[in-house]
Amino acid sequence: MTTITVLLILLSIVIAGSLSFFQYYYKAKTKLKSNLVLAFLRFVSILGILLLLINPIISRNTYEIVKTPLPIVVDNSSSIFNLKANATAFKLYKKVFQNKAIQDKFDVQTYRFDSEIEQSEEFDFKGKQTNIDVVAKSLKSIYKNVVFPTVLITDGNQTSGNDYVYSFDANNKVYPLVVGDTTTYLDLKINQLNANKYAFQKNKFPVEVFLQYSGSKNLNADFSISQGNSVLTKQTVSFSPSKKSAILTVLLPADKVGLQIFKATISSKEKEKNTYNNTKNFAVEVIDQKTNIAIVTAINHPDIGALKRAIESNVQRKVTVVKPNVIKSLQDYSILILYQPTAEFKSVFEKNKLAGINTFIITGTNTDFNFLNQQQDNIVFRMSGQKEDYLAEFNSQFNLFAMEDFGFSTFPPLQNAFGTIKVNGNVSTLLSSKIRNVNTNSPLLAFAENQGRRAAFFLGENSWKWRLQSHIDNQSYEKYDLFVDKIIQFLASNNSKKSLVVNHENFYNTGESIEISAQYFNKNYEFDEKARLTIAVTNTKTKQTKNFDLLKGNNVYRVNLDGISAGTYNFSVKELNSNTVYSNHFEILEFDIEKQFVNPDLERLTQLAAQTQGKVYYPNQADVLIKSLLENENYKAIEKSIVAKTPLIDWVWLLVLIAISLATEWFIRKYNGML
Known about the structure:
Keywords: Membrane, Transmembrane, Transmembrane helix. This is VWA domain-containing protein. The chain crosses the membrane at residues 6-26, 38-58, 651-668. By secondary structure, this protein is an alpha/beta fold. It folds into five domains: 3-62 and 643-671, no CATH class; 68-183 and 599-636, von Willebrand factor, type A domain (Rossmann fold), CATH 3.40.50; 187-287, Immunoglobulins (Immunoglobulin-like); 291-474, 3-Layer(aba) Sandwich (Rossmann fold); 500-593, Sandwich (Immunoglobulin-like), CATH 2.60.40. It contains 14 helices and 33 strands. Strands 16-15-17-18-23-22-21-19-20 form a nine-stranded mixed beta sheet, covered by helices on one side. The protein has a five-stranded mixed beta sheet with strand order 4-3-2-5-6, sandwiched between helices. Helix 1 (3-26) packs antiparallel against helix 2 (34-54) and helix 7 (302-312) packs across helix 11 (478-492). The chain is extended and about 120 Å long. It starts with a helix and ends with a helix.
């Protein structure tokens, strides 16, 4: 309490005492024995009321023992079961967790992980993916600014996520308890296979294969890729104790249109403990057409390169950058991207009036807006010579195609001329513009469709910064490139609008997320919030059919078909109110990534321990680990002082005391006839 508060309390005592004395002694007509009691009760009442008015803060110190956290994290993926280490992993967990000395010294928390991490004391070792990187990120988030050790019970074999060796906080020691047989067995393995999802008919497509060998002697292995009963390519690969990996690149012919299934195999005359990882299936869809796109520009700008890379991330697209005065025939192109048009583009616009090719117009500070107004009437520009920065705002009601907001409002501003923009006719806005968080009610990205011709307008330059920001946010260009691809897909198609649009892949691998999304539009081509969509999935071999409902999300309906076994499936999506149906097929390829391991990844776990100044332990060293944790002086419990400050007005008992003293005084006065 402050000095002023203490003085006020002393003054309150004096005032309460003075008033009590004045009432029952100085002013009293008769001197009764009860006056002393009445004076005391009056003193208590007045003092209590004055204290409530002053409302001093009462401080109280308490002490709490804070133990060092000890997360025990258990690998719950099926690779632990496949390595026959599940019983060992559970035994090690119980040994560390149930140790009384460990419980006394540490605040023990137990977790399990596969593709995600969760707090749990039960383990079934059935996880379909292993992501140790997510463990590192979660522990950093849970235990911020705390020094703590981590016991990691795992085989170290990761199938998804970033490299975990450098993901953990270097200041917090990690003690891997390695489970699984560390004995080295002879093993050939297809470690990774890279192939494009699409290829073009009558072309050859590359397949990159990473092969790995574990063993102590020289070995010749046969690698082949087959389709059905036909072997398409075969070669011999040599391995030795000093050469334990090989990278092969083969070209396969794309002769047949449609989904083509291939099998890559590596084998030798030697006997292996695990042959599951000797084979890997993959699929390629062979298509007979390619979208040729021209980016017409009279200037050099980083947007051009970023746009070209984003479009060509879809192998069905080919981009050519040309100058407006050089381009001759438009018939070679399906889409024209006109970057910052000026009067130099006049011949291109005139030729396109006859060709009727869909256009994607991008404006910026070099655009001639008067010229652009003369060449099209979807958007009217009234622009000044002043430059302005425009931020983006996503329109959730946009319904020309499925598009999710992946952070448009956080992207750097685009630069364009300052002015007013007016839309005419059938124009839909995906992104509207803002100037310093003030809505301009003008489009930033808009789409128009008139008499079968489609056009897109992107009103600002420096979109290359968006692609870079998307990579920073997501560690990948994928979301931004998909955003651009959907714009191109809209422009590449002149088909009439469909009421039911379904998005799906033609093939999936077992263990992957199998998601199918759909949109249903009413007669005005508005997204129907009240649609009832179901999907019937039929296995072509067993003829067994399963039915699911599609759940509504943000302008899209989705269904997750995880858990369906490998095979070929026909499916139909149906809107129950209108009986509109979409039918197609997909294939799930047999591949259990968790079965490819023969040994724990001791090398990377050792690197992780060294990176965090921890140490690797084996199952028979669990007692040594426990002893090390108990003897480590860095993990002492801390006595923490907690100061609790309570305003006096929160004391309910003080109010009760005032009420009792006032009531008692009244009854005594009443009894003595003093009222």
